[in-house]
Design brief:
It is built from 3 helices and no strands. By secondary structure, the protein is mainly alpha-helical.
Length: about 70
Amino acid sequence: MELTVSDEKMKDFMKEIMTEMIKERKDFFHEIVLEAMEEVAFANAIMEGRKDEFVDENRILEALED
């Protein structure tokens, strides 16, 4: 016996599953979204920082020692 499901029906199933998972585990999905946003902000900060001149590592270490 073979079971076939149309692409549209599979899409509906997946939406339903994801909706239920989000409802039941809001805290988990909140953490995922928050972490993703932090990663994007971090990547943007790196890209922004690359526009400026680099600081010599020794200057950074000296500043940390003071």
